[in-house]
Design brief:
five-stranded antiparallel β-sheet; about 30% helix
Amino acid sequence: MSTIAIMAALAVLSVQEILGLIGAAVVGAKLRQWAGENTHRLAEESKDDYREPTPFTHPLLFENYSSREAVLTKVHRKKGTTELWSEDWKHRNHFEVFASERDMRNGIRNRAVDLPGRRR
């Protein structure tokens, strides 16, 4: 199944269905806990603005990544790219996105994306 087909299939899911996937998703326990406590906030924020897939909303598009730099939080690699998505270890409500492993080592963040996929 292509990435576009997976994204199209997951785009029709409601917030409740997405939260149902969280139990089996690749995101960490603290992030799942925050999502469970803020379900109403996530539902209110589901507008039709641009969003990109995140490990929270589209877990099939990401794979777990492990390295020495990925000790404090879970890190995910977006399939087909070199992007690394790291859960923010302090706030636990967004992802820090790095363009490559080298950028992650050097602390050069590309962008920050919240759980539903909006840039912060």
